[in-house]
Design goal:
The complex is a heterodimer. Chain A is α/β, with parallel strands linked by helices. Helices cover about 40% and strands about 15% of the residues of chain A. Chain A has a seven-stranded mixed sheet. A five-stranded parallel sheet of chain A has the order 2-1-3-4-5, with helices on both faces. In chain A, a hairpin with a 4-residue loop joins strand 12 and strand 13. The chains are: A alpha/beta, B mainly alpha.
């Protein structure tokens, strides 16, 4: 029995080929995303493991960190992805818990095969997770504002390029407080590491300005009622510096108002106390005229930049800093820009390093370490920054706002240099 | 085959399976199992007191954290090497367990639960109060280069796994031996009927104190090992949540069984891990599963196994 060889160029086959070719061309024209990631389908997406505080004490921050991250990823993908590959966000809840945080980093590295881990806010989760990131050799980009990275206590795989740290923030603001509000300061802070950092760094910074902390009042973390601490505020106090976080914040602020009414000292607070809380909340009226640090101005300012306009629209935040879909859902605007900017830095770093996969992780870190100036732009809508590759920490502007008619109006913007301090570590000398 | 022989085979078999799993499991699960084995040591310590002696402590996080900070601060604040630091962690746990046991055992029942809970809360607040040394809630990292035992870097996946396995195996076999020893039998007798045990001439107070010390020491050893293997010590591990975890693990796995702790920890770990991949309301799923297990397997998984199939299970 003999077989008749098939002709490779039959009429029907040719028509099929032409039809298929036309179909692909049409799809490429009409579905630009498919074409954009044509390479991505062969090489796979760049996977960013997003360590999200979806539950636990950090949940209100986590919700907005997530929205910002998704918006940043969408923008990056709309612009063509990273090195022509789609950016995929792989989200895992860490429960705002350091043990689970470390487990999540492991999951990113060994199960999801993520290229990097990213997005952690709470310092204890960063501390708990960073050792595993270093051991698993996965770049870990945190958005925490803790001084942990620049203090040299972590490792070469942990970086904080998208948000300034607390030491820098308080140092930058001390001159304004001293010159405009008063030189005798009483500090009220939570009695744990975050509060202690404020106490230590601000005390040093205000003394350098000729001011003085006349009393430090730590509040135990389990406290639910605060009025009993207020009589400890010395009469000579000119400025009351408050920085509280956690579920008791609203009670704290209300009781502070009930205690002082309109007779108290100048109030200077960290917006951390009122992130995700509306200034229209009952009991907060007494904050009128008080001052706050903001990492990024929540309420739209008269001189709003085009970059902030774009960023605000992309994330879905209205001019009062709340969700455009639900005006009662107030954002964590002073912090969440860090996610947006960090992802853009990751993109720039991967492109500079020619990042192709996990083998290039060290090259990615070296590329980010080589960065310095980060101009105010759509990639950096909060403002100009200077990254210090040795300490893995970025430096930028801080905003001091006054509550005026229920809105936070920026009174002073610090310079980038105001927040700079001596290097405490040189991570670039550590091996990978 | 005698029950003793079966028990020996079972315990050695579990260790052999854990040894073999290293070679067949994907990297992610190897990492998880390292963690599960260390936490199972914690649960075994708790089980000795709760499952075998009938004393429900709600403050075991204190012992876990004591071992963790004993080792961590010895290494971080005083630059002591890992091996002596481990010993220091262990000694701290022994002392803490002896003090807590001595005081808390003056109470019984609900009062014992409350007193242990309060001791743990005092321990947690002490860690926060001395934040200048402990770094409070933030905790601190134990640097990777310092985490060496007998010249072996235990931060690698292989060394970490086998270090966790050795720790688990030693404690697992120790507990298996203890619960079958006259001391262990007396603890079970105290659990079943303390008055009768005392009438039979046993010094139940001394036995209970020994049980608290042994239980606290094993839990402290787990805390020290956790800090050493995973490079972090923090006040979170001293919170009430970490006192409740071993109770859940042991209840799920089977209180008063040697296998219960490892089964409970593994079950709970993967329940959280898998359900969190499905929904953010994963604690709801975990809660429903726990309620169902409590309703339909009140003696825990290993307890049910013993009730239905393997009556000789220790």
């Amino acid at each position: 029995m003999t077989k008749t060889p098939k002709n490779a160029f039959t009429r029907r086959g040719l028509l099929k080929s032409i039809g298929a070719g036309a179909g692909v061309a049409a799809a490429t024209n009409f579905m630009p995303d498919v074409a954009r990631f044509a390479h991505a389908q062969s090489a796979g997406p760049i996977k960013v493991g997003f360590q999200m505080h979806a539950t636990g004490i950090g949940a209100s921050y986590g919700r907005w960190y997530d929205r910002t991250t998704q918006a940043a990823a969408k923008r990056i993908n709309d612009m063509g992805g990273i090195n022509g590959r789609e950016l995929e966000i792989v989200t895992e809840d860490d429960g705002t818990d350091p043990k689970r945080g470390a487990e999540v980093v492991e999951k990113f590295a060994t199960q999801h095969n993520c290229d990097i881990a990213f997005g952690t806010l709470f310092s204890h989760v960063v501390y708990g997770s960073a050792p595993r990131a270093g051991e698993l050799k996965i770049p870990y980009f945190v958005v925490s504002e803790g001084h942990h990275v620049a203090s040299g206590k972590l490792n070469r795989y942990t970086l904080q390029p998208g948000i300034t740290d607390v030491k820098s923030q308080v140092q930058a603001m001390a001159p304004f407080v001293s010159e405009n509000l008063g030189k005798k300061i009483t500090m009220i802070y939570p009695d744990f590491a975050f509060g202690h950092d404020h106490r230590d760094y601000f005390t040093a910074a205000i003394e350098a300005q000729g001011g003085e902390v006349v009393a430090s009042i730590p509040i135990p973390p389990t406290e639910t009622s605060f009025t009993k601490y207020f009589p400890n505020i010395p009469r000579e106090t000119e400025v009351l510096y408050h920085v509280m976080v956690g579920p008791g914040v609203l009670t704290f602020v209300k009781e502070l108002g009930e205690f002082f009414g309109d007779q108290g000292p100048q109030l200077f607070g960290f917006i951390d106390s009122l992130e995700a809380v509306s200034f229209g909340s009952p009991g907060l009226e007494f904050l009128e005229g008080s001052y706050f640090w903001e990492g990024n101005p929540r309420h739209v300012q008269a001189d709003q930049s085009e970059h902030d306009k774009m960023y605000r629209a992309a994330v879905g935040v209205n001019e009062m800093g709340a969700s455009v879909d639900d005006p009662k859902d107030v954002s964590t605007y002073a912090h969440m820009f860090g996610c947006w900017e960090t992802l853009n830095i990751v993109k720039a770093g991967m492109e500079a390093a020619g990042y192709a996969g996990p083998d290039d992780r060290a090259a990615l870190i070296e590329a980010v370490e080589a960065m310095t100036d980060m101009p105010h732009s759509d990639d950096h809508p909060q403002g100009h920054k200077v990254f210090n590759g040795k300490t893995h920490q970025t430096f930028g502007h801080q905003y001091i706002s006054k509550v005026t008619d229920g809105k936070l109006m920026v009174q002073h913007t610090t310079s980038v240099e105001d927040g700079m301090y001596e290097d405490e570590v040189d991570y670039t000398t550590m091996s990978f | 085959m005698s029950d003793t022989k079966r028990s020996h085979l079972l315990h050695l078999g579990v260790i052999a399976v854990l040894f073999a799993l290293f070679f067949v499991l994907p990297a992610y699960h190897v990492g998880n199992l390292s963690r599960i084995m260390v936490l199972a040591v914690y649960a075994m310590g708790f089980n000795l007191l709760f499952g075998y002696t009938g004393l429900l402590s709600l403050g075991h996080a204190l012992f876990f954290a004591t071992g963790m900070y004993g080792l961590g601060m010895a290494m971080n604040s005083f630059g002591i090497a890992a091996e002596p630091a481990l010993l220091i962690g262990l000694i701290c746990a022994v002392v803490m367990a002896a003090v807590v046991g001595f005081l808390a055992l003056r109470t019984s029942g609900v009062a014992f639960m409350i007193v242990t809970l309060m001791f743990a809360q005092a321990g947690y607040l002490t860690i926060l109060y001395f934040g200048a040394y402990t770094r409070g809630d933030e905790g601190f990292v134990i640097p990777q280069p310092d985490r060496m035992i007998a010249g072996i870097d235990i931060t690698g996946e292989t060394a970490r796994y086998f270090a966790a396995l050795i720790l688990f195996a030693v404690v697992f076999l120790l507990i298996a031996h203890v619960v079958r020893s006259p001391f262990g039998r007396t603890l079970v007798a105290i659990r079943e009927n303390e008055e009768r045990t005392r009438m039979l001439g046993y010094d139940t107070d001394r036995h209970k104190l020994k049980a608290v010390i042994l239980s606290g020491t094993i839990s402290g050893l787990a805390g020290a090992a956790y800090a050493l293997l995973f490079g972090y010590a923090g006040a979170t591990f001293a919170t009430v949540q970490y006192s409740i975890f071993p109770l859940l693990w042991v209840l799920l796995g089977g209180a008063g069984t040697t296998l219960g702790p490892i089964i409970g920890v593994a079950f709970m770990f993967y329940l959280i891990d898998l359900s969190s991949s499905v929904t953010q309301a994963y604690m709801l799923i975990a809660g429903v599963v726990l309620v169902l297990l409590t309703l339909f397997a009140p003696q825990g998984l290993a307890g049910e196994l013993r009730r239905r199939v393997m009556r000789w299970l220790p």
